[in-house]
Amino acid sequence: MSFNNRDEAMELNAKVLVLDDEPLVRLLICSKLEQAGAQVSEAGCCAEAIKLMRNTTFDAALFDYRLPDGNGIDVVRLLRKEEFSLPIAMLSGEAADLEEETVNDLGICAVFPKPPDVALIAKTLAREAGCSPVKETVRVGRYAYFKADPSESENRPEWEEQDWLAVDFSAWSSESLPSSMPDSFRRPRRGLAVVGANPDLRNYFDSLDLNIEFVAGVDELAALSRRPTTPLERAALLETVQPGSPTESHA
């Protein structure tokens, strides 16, 4: 069994808060940021964003300017007074009207116009959050995504290293799978998805009596990644954040 890894790319392996009152804009931005590897939280108003910031550690944030209960600049100003120093970018249909002096004084790392160029946003936030180019598996939301190659039979170590795993079997026919695969699938993990399996293979995975999600393709996998997690899963995700005092978390 072999897997195709992508070439070196900027991976946004960071926790990001997206503040925007337009649900469709949030959906677009969050989906793309998750595909870049980010763990994304959403807020639709200033009050919600401030509450999330005070209760969760984030590596970077993207705030819309005009919001139903204020504007993004006011939120940044409040957070800076509370000594939050994470990189924050702004998104605005009036980007040209934001005063450069205010942007610089508040340490806003970038101002993006609407409609958003999400690829540029992801690249900028990755750079500002200190993410470096890495060579690793493709990520779709919280899942590490591997494309299984039926032409080879060896098992790659990445099977055992990923907590969230999605394996694409779209290239497989009905031939038997390697006997070592079930052992790899039985490794404890928080989420396991099988992508693009034909009916025979799907029946095979069903026979393993495992909690496997089945999706037709990467788009459905991205939607699966955005599904609300259980309290236990959320607690497990929070354990991946480095511990530290409140002051250290803001640095």
Descriptors for this entry?
251 residues, alpha/beta, Rossmann fold, 2 domains, six-stranded mixed beta sheet, five-stranded parallel beta sheet, 11 helices, 36% helix, disordered N terminus, disordered C terminus
Q: What would you say this structure looks like, in words?
A:
This protein has 251 residues and is an alpha/beta fold. It has 2 domains: 12-133, Rossmann fold (3-Layer(aba) Sandwich), CATH 3.40.50; 137-236, no CATH class. The protein is built from 11 helices and 15 strands. The protein has helices at residues 23-35, 46-55, 72-81, 100-105, 118-128, 158-161, 180-185, 199-207, 218-225, 231-238, 246-250; strands at 2-3, 9-10, 15-19, 39-43, 60-64, 66-67, 70-71, 88-92, 108-113, 133-134, 138-140, 143-149, 164-168, 191-195, 213-215. Strands 1, 11, 12, 13, 14 and 15 form a 6-stranded mixed β-sheet that branches. Strands 4-3-5-8-9 form a 5-stranded parallel β-sheet, with helices on both faces. The chain starts with a strand and ends with a helix.
